[in-house]
Every structure is written in structure tokens, then in C-alpha cells.
Amino acid sequence: MDFISRAFGQGADGAQSSIMSFLPLILMFAVLYFIMIRPQMKRQKEHRNMLAAMAKGDEVVTNGGIVGKVTKVSDAYVGVEIAEGTEITIQKASVTTILPKGTIKSL
């Protein structure tokens, strides 16, 4: 009878110990989520909203550093005039920034 009560007592300590050993791992994941994952999701949402609001006539900067004026917008691609009479077609997702109007003339 004494053996059974000791066995149950040891089992309870073992279960509590395994939960406590996972606690630091769970805390590290929570910190990682709030420091890295959540801000990245916020930036992605802002970028999607910026691309959805892009319209003809906007001045943009691409991932490659090309600056130009939007001439046409479709679902996946954007026509960008980089010089007078020179137009390129790029993927919409490669636009990183929409500049204030008149920025290209000041360059």
C-alpha cells in the first residue's frame, strides 16, 4: 500500500516537471512572435494597402531603385515611365514606395 502512494507521488512530480521544462520554450516563442512575426505581418498589410491604392500618375520607387511615374495599373503588373518615351512593365509587388507628387522633377 505504501508503494502505491509513493508511485503516485513521484508521477505527479514528473508531470509537473515536464510542463515546467517546456515553459521557457513557450515563453521564447511568445517573445519571438511579438518581436519579429507580428511587426512583419503589419508591414506586409501596409504594403498590400499601398499597392491597392496605387493609381495612374503616382510616382514610385521599385525594389531595384528605379524611379518612375505609373502609366497603367493591372492586377499583377504596372507600367512605369522611367524617362520620356521609355516605359517598362514591372510586377506590382516590386513597387516599394509611392513618392509624393513632384518628387521626380526635383531629382
UniProtKB/TrEMBL annotation:
Entry keyword annotation includes Transport: yes
Alphabetical GO biological process terms: protein transport
GO cellular component annotations of the record: plasma membrane
Principal subcellular localisation of the protein: membrane
Pfam families (alphabetical): YajC
Its membrane topology: Single-pass membrane protein
Transmembrane segments: 15-35
Subcellular location, record wording: Cell membrane
Signal sequence region: none
InterPro entries, alphabetized: Preprotein_translocase_YajC
Keywords on record: Cell membrane, Membrane, Protein transport, Translocation, Transmembrane, Transmembrane helix, Transport
Record carries keyword RNA-binding: no
Similarity comment text for this entry: Belongs to the YajC family.
NCBIfam families (alphabetical): yajC (TIGR00739)
Protein name: Sec translocon accessory complex subunit YajC
Organism: Caballeronia sordidicola
